[in-house]
């Protein structure tokens, strides 16, 4: 009985969180110049430079740059703005 509870807990709690963390890490490592991103603070911009120290330079408006940590990029919001728009009928 106790083993069944642990198995259910692992299947519904730990496994999905580990999968999402793996996807987030892969997403952050694959960022490159020209990608449109949204930070967790809601700032929209385009990646201008990927630095070796774990930071990014993003251009928020023409000529305005912000240096942010890679971990400050929201995977969900970035995927939302980059998905193709459905054709209107």
Summarize the structure.
This protein has about 90 residues and is α+β, with helices and mostly antiparallel strands. About 40% of the residues lie in helices and about 25% in strands.
Features:
four-stranded antiparallel beta sheet, single chain, 2 helices, SH3 type barrels, 89 residues, elongated
Q: Detail the poorly predicted runs.
A: none
Range of helix content: 40-55%
Can you name the CATH architecture?
Roll
Radius of gyration: 18 Å
Give the spatial strand order of the biggest sheet.
1-2-3-4
Order of helices and strands: HEEEEH
How do the helices and strands line up, and which of them pair or pack?
Elements: H1 2-29, E1 36-38, E2 44-50, E3 55-61, E4 64-69, H2 75-82
Antiparallel strand pairs: 1-2, 2-3, 3-4
Folded structure, characterized:
The structure is a single chain. With about 90 residues, the protein is of the alpha+beta class. The chain has one domain (about 1-80): SH3 type barrels (Roll). Helix content is about 40%, strand content about 25%. It contains two helices and four strands. The protein has helices spanning about 1-30, 75-80, and strands at about 35-40, 45-50, 55-60, 65-70. Strands 1-2-3-4 form a four-stranded antiparallel beta sheet. Strand 1 and strand 2 (about 45-50) form a beta hairpin. The longest helix is centred in the first third of the chain and has 28 residues, at about 1-30.
């Amino acid at each position: 009985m106790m083993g069944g509870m642990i198995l259910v807990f692992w299947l519904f709690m730990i496994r999905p969180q580990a999968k999402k963390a793996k996807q987030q890490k892969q997403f952050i490592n694959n960022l490159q110049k020209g990608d449109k991103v949204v930070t967790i603070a809601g700032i929209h911009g385009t990646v201008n430079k990927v630095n070796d120290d774990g930071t990014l330079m993003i251009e928020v408006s023409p000529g305005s740059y912000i240096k942010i940590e890679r971990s400050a990029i929201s995977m969900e919001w970035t995927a939302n703005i980059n998905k193709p728009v459905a054709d209107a009928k």
